[in-house]
Amino acid sequence: MATSAEIEEVLETGLPEQWYALLPASWVGDEPVGITRLGRRLVLWRDGDGVAHVQMDRCPHRGARLSQGHVIDGLLTCTYHGMQFDGDGTVAKVSAYPGCTLEGMHGLRSYPAAEKANCIFAWMGEGAPAPLTFPEEFDDPEWSHFLCTGTWQGSYLFALENVVDPMHGSYLHAKSYTLAYGSGFDEMEVVKSEDGFTVRRTQQVGKNFDWTEYHSTGADWVRLDLPYPPGAGPGGMFRILGYVTPVDADACQVFFWRLRKVDGWERDLWRFMYKSRLEERHWNVLEQDRVVIEQMEQPEAEMLYQHDIGVTHLRRLLQRRARDYLKSRTAPQLAAE
Ligand code: FES
Ligand SMILES: [Fe+2]
Questions:
Q1: 17 part of a folded domain
Q2: How many angstroms separate the CA atoms of 329 and 57, rounded?
Q3: Which end of the chain has fewer beta carbons closer than 10 Å to its terminal beta carbon, N or C?
Q4: pLDDT for res 336
Q5: Are residues 95 and 204 in the same domain?
Q6: b/e sequence 299-318, b meaning 16+ C-beta within 10 Å
Q7: Domain range for residue 52?
Q8: Which of 80, 95, 102, 103 has most ligand 1 atoms within 8 Å of its beta carbon, as the pocket-test mutant?
Q9: Using CA positions, which residue lies closest to atom 1 of ligand 1?
Q10: 209 C-alpha vs ligand 2 centroid, how far in Å?
């Protein structure tokens, strides 16, 4: 039975056995890019066919960072002695010693990757990846979206808890463009769903940040709708799809797709308004979250109350998964004894 300290340790930098959003796809061009996710240094690059790869950012020869290298002839090439790797992590060429027996050997850990909605995702676990299902809006041409991302110097757990805590919308964002409406008190409820849960206000809908859906479909993500004031042009609610990825124990990368179901001239108008005026306002709201989260500290004895049922539900879910993960790692050892 895993101890709470062991569970906490697993959760500190993120559960490994799942898919994570890593980086906007358009940020990976002709050269490799180095990032840290789940406390691991990763290199992202594209081969000759433009296919994105995610690998450990450490050359197996002597340990140089591969993100300091280049992509040459569709191969990831180390800057230190020129060793080249393909997308599977196989040594394709040892230029400094042609015919070297290392050629053809597997040397570099590669993470299964997927590209969707202008984002690169990767499976961070061992073995075969779990099936990954994306929010339906990503494939629905009726939805128009923009991806915004940022690095927050705070735990990914605070960032995740923030999105399953709709009540903060009426306080932290009370003076914002989209969230200045509705009442400042309510009762919250949690309703389980097929792949997660919904946390929602019981006495108000369609006025503020009133509910969040939390989904686990290979990756964890959230969906929420915000009302747009009439000045935001024609079209319905402003939808947000969010993913949060740990950078390490103290930082995270947040990904928010901002969507609207609009087409024709209304879509053109919204996209224009978004770029010229709305985006800045939305960033201001997100900044309010970032500033709070970056300064948060877990109290020794939290004084939780009724509105925190989304937070406690999420914590239980993550702890259960961490426990299962630890059990799956110790089971083979026990079997071998
Ligand atoms: S460290 Fe990469 S080729 Fe030597
Ligand atoms: Fe917020």
A1: no
A2: 25
A3: C
A4: 53
A5: no
A6: eeeeeeeebbbbbebbbebb
A7: 29-112
A8: 80
A9: 62
A10: 9
- For 140-156, the DSSP string reads -TTEEEEEEEEEESS-H
Ligand 2 centroid from CA 150, angstroms = 14
Domain holding 199: CATH number?
3.90.380.10
Using CA positions, which residue lies closest to atom 3 of ligand 1?
81
- Whole-number Å distance, alpha carbon 69 to ligand 1 midpoint, is 10
Q: Tell me the C-alpha to C-alpha distance, in Å, between residue 199 and each of 14, 32, 148, 317.
A: 22, 40, 24, 14
Q: Which two tokens stand for residue 316?
A: 């239980």
66 and 176, same domain (yes or no)? no
- 143-192 per-position pLDDT tens digit: 999 999 999 999 999 999 999 999 999 999 988 877 777 888 899 999 99
Q: What is the pLDDT of residues 184-231, one digit of tens each?
A: 889 999 999 999 999 999 998 888 889 999 999 999 999 999 888 777
Domain count, the chain: 2
Q: Which pLDDT does position 263 carry in this prediction?
A: 87
> Does residue 20 sit within a domain?
no
pLDDT for 80-137, tens place per residue? 999 999 999 999 999 999 999 999 999 999 999 999 999 999 999 998 999 999 999 9
Q: Which residue has the tokens 């066919």?
A: 49
Shared domain for 210 and 289, answered yes or no, is yes
Q: Is residue 123 in a domain?
A: no
206 and 259 inside one domain: yes
Closest C-alpha residue for ligand 1 atom 4? 81
Residues 175 and 299 in one domain: yes
Task: Report the CATH number that the domain containing residue 78 is assigned in CATH.
Answer: 2.102.10.10
* Strand, coil or helix: 110: strand
**Residue 74 Cα to ligand 1 middle (Å):** 18
Residue 269 lies in a domain: yes
Do 240 and 298 share a domain, yes or no?
yes
Q: Which residues are near ligand 1 (CB < 6 Å)?
A: 59, 61-62, 64, 78, 80-81, 83
Q: What's the pTM?
A: 0.95
Q: How far is CA 9 from CA 142, 203, 299, in A?
A: 42, 38, 18
